[in-house]
Amino acid sequence: MTDLVSSVPVFGSIINALAVSAGAMIGLAVHSRLPGRFSDMTFQVFGLFSIFLGISMAMGTQNLIVLLFGLLSGSLVGELLDIETRIRKLGDSLKQKARSTNEHFTEGLLTSFLLFCVGSMTVLGAIEEGLGGFPAILLTKSIMDGFAAIALAASLGSGVLFSALPLFIFQGGLTLLTRFFGGGVPDAVINEITAAGGVLIIGIALSVLGIRNIRVSNMLPGLVTTAVLAWLFL
Fold this sequence. Notes:
The structure is a single chain. The chain is an all-alpha fold. It has one domain. The protein is built from twelve helices and no strands. It has helices at 2-7, 11-33, 36-58, 64-81, 83-98, 105-117, 120-130, 136-156, 159-162, 164-181, 187-208, 221-233. α2 packs antiparallel against α10 (164-181), α3 crosses α8 and α7 packs antiparallel against α8 (136-156). The longest helix is centred in the first third of the chain and has 23 residues, at 11-33. The mean pLDDT is 83.
């Protein structure tokens, strides 16, 4: 087993993506058997829980100024690039190819990707595996994400299943970058990335619940700019 893990550079991310896929398929099976009103209730509970989760993550910030200006500057870049429109087109294209009739397909894909990728376990796990260690953090995360994918797919539909691909690309990419450049990401940077991700999750929850349409996709570069500012000033 150890030989297999060491021979595959992104073994942890592969297992993580497979766990999400398996959980999502179980969730979709559950979703198809739920009456409409139960599906709606599951959807609403998920939205409210996402607000709670986002607030919990955002409260981990060590510097509100860094978080604010990181998100603001990154969001302006995202607005300039109009990432929202590009992701919507990609989501609609995947939806057509999957022949899905789920109106929350794109929200499910983006929400799942953020939930699975913006936490501290993603960064720490990628660093651990990238430095040649056994991917214990990513394997633990895989179990957690697999169960989360069941609930997500039951409420948001098939977009959750497709989130396994960007999850693998993002997390596997971090692992390979760590292997190439070495580790050493300060805890302060990880905390601010997690906090910024929490703010974005709140925005998605508000959009999903129909409270306010927020262009969260355009805010994604804020994760990078927040990390850069945290690295420079914290």
